[in-house]
Amino acid sequence: MKAIINQAIVALTVLLAMACTQESQNKIGRSIQNWTGTDGVLEVYAGEQLVRRFINIDKLSTAYGTSDANPRPYRFGYGYLDANLNMVKDVDEHKVYFEFSDYSTSYVFFENPR
After folding, report:
1. For residue 51, what is the enclosing H or E element?
2. Secondary structure (H, E, C), 82-107
3. Hey, which of 21-25, 26-30, 33-37, 75-79 has the most confident mean pLDDT?
4. Among 7, 67, 85, 109, which is least packed, fewest CB within 10 Å?
5. 74-109: b or e for each residue (b if 16 or more CB lie within 10 Å)?
6. Segment 49-104, tens digit of pLDDT
């Protein structure tokens, strides 16, 4: 009986996932990823030169207005400033809040491959 119930739950979950739009599936995926956490890296460039790196970022967020709830043209998050650009959180590197413009900042955000 337990096996039948488990199979029914799995089938229902699959059907619900298939019924969701791609945007809804992406939101669900991001929610799970935000819950489980990631090891994100944000690199900020001035031209072709890397000028800042933030590591151990769990997510980047889009800012929204408080009165109109419209998205703002910048993103923000928390991470460790990798001052020496060695991709390792050293003892003298601290967690910081950062924000950057979507329009004028050259950046790359990726999961740490290590």
Report:
1. strand 49-57
2. CCCCCCCCCCCCCEEEEEEECCCCEE
3. 75-79
4. 67
5. ebebebbebeeeeeeeeeebeeeebebeeeeeeeee
6. 999 999 999 888 888 888 888 889 988 999 999 999 999 999 999 999 999 988 88
